Amino acid sequence: MAAAAGDVDRLSDLPDNILHHILSFLDTLSIVETSVLARRWRSLWKDVPVLNIWRKYRNSSTFSFKEHISKLLSLRSHHVAVAEVNFDYCRWGATLSEKFEMFDSVMKNAASQSQGNGGGSHLHRLSIVSPSTIDFTDMAASIVANHHHDSLKTLKLMRMNLVSAPTSGFKSLTALELFDCCLGPNTFANFPGLRYLKLQGCISRNLKVSGLELVHLEIREAHGSSIRSMEVSAPKLRSFFFRGTDPRRKWSPVLNLPALDHANVHVLWFNSTNGFGYTKEEADRACLKLLSGLHNAESLILCFDNYNYKEDTDKNSPLTELNSSLTEHEVSPFTRLKTLRVRYRKGSPTQTIPYRVIRYFMDGSPNSVDKSFGIEKIEEKM
């Protein structure tokens, strides 16, 4: 805001790039409104390289909102390329076709501003949020048609249908975050350069992740989400995080992670498989299949959270369940493991790590000097 009489307007004294960064956290219409604060701010908004397209004026009509956005896009400086677009379908009311028309207009505007900056797209980060699951195909086509897929590094999608893979490869993309999306077996076929992949609350009958450059993979299941089978093959993957609702389900995860350094598995553990269509023995072996797929890890964190933890006793604790599923002569597949940590949510009963479990994880590595294991309690919600 403008300085009062006798005060020093230190905010306005900041360099343009700092002020542009501050403004980039506001929605685009609010950024324009800062032009009335002082003479210094009159044209600052025109050079902000970030477009946050969501509806601030909830009482204004859809037509009015579209007119405002169209006008400000035309008034933006053509000397500064758009580097980031955050497009939220949830924040303003309109038909799906109207929303896509707006999205396509924003993509074209970002492309046209790139023409005055040496040509080629300068869009590095794109986020699209939808109120309900919609098909990503048309949006992918718009991104490709405006050549943004050549520069795009980070893509974040919420509630999108990606069962059909994008029509063209996003070869420059290095980070992909998907929330509550529907995935198909070939969803990731056209993202060959991914280094970071996060999946949260996604649904897939047959999840296949194969990335030659993938370094970090994070899979977080939510209540009601489901990944029925999982195949991951990533020769350079160093870090793997999995949070699931009882991976003892009857499935057969296949993990090929030769360069794995650190793995974190967080399990919401049910004490019974009644009604799930499979036996406890089948479920326990499936859990061991998941864990054995992490055998190249040097550091492993296991976090168990019982579904009915307040009524748990040591008799039916997850570690006791895991211990009972191991045979007396079970061979440890963990040939590089140095550190094992087992965590529980605060409030759950105190547990010890059964000897057979320790042996399964720690006896496979020839280097016994630096090994360590422990048990911790953490404050964390599933």
Determine the structural class based on helices, strands and strand pairing.
Answer: alpha/beta
What would the average pLDDT be, to the nearest integer?
Answer: 79
Beta-strand residue percentage: 15-25%
Radius of gyration: 25 Å
For the secondary structure, the number of strands is 16
Secondary-structure element string: HHEHEHEHEEEEEEEEEEHEHEHE
Q: Strand count, sense and closure of the main sheet?
A: 13 strands, parallel
This entry's quaternary arrangement is single chain
Weakly predicted, low-confidence segments: 309-314
Helix content: 10-25%
End-to-end separation in angstroms reads 42 Å
The 3D shape can be described as: elongated
Record keyword descriptors for this entry.
alpha/beta, 13-stranded parallel sheet, 382 residues, 23% helix, three-stranded parallel sheet, single chain, elongated
How would you describe this protein?
This protein has eight helices and 16 strands. With 382 residues, it is an alpha/beta fold. The protein has a domain at 238-382. Strands 1, 2, 3, 4, 5, 6, 7, 9, 11, 13, 14, 15 and 16 form a 13-stranded parallel sheet that branches. It has a three-stranded parallel sheet with strand order 8-10-12, with no helix packed on it. Helix 7 links the parallel strand 14 (299-306) and strand 15. Helix 3 packs parallel to helix 4 (96-115) and helix 4 (96-115) runs parallel beside helix 5. The longest helix has 20 residues, at 96-115. The radius of gyration is 25 Å and the shape is elongated. The two termini are 42 Å apart.
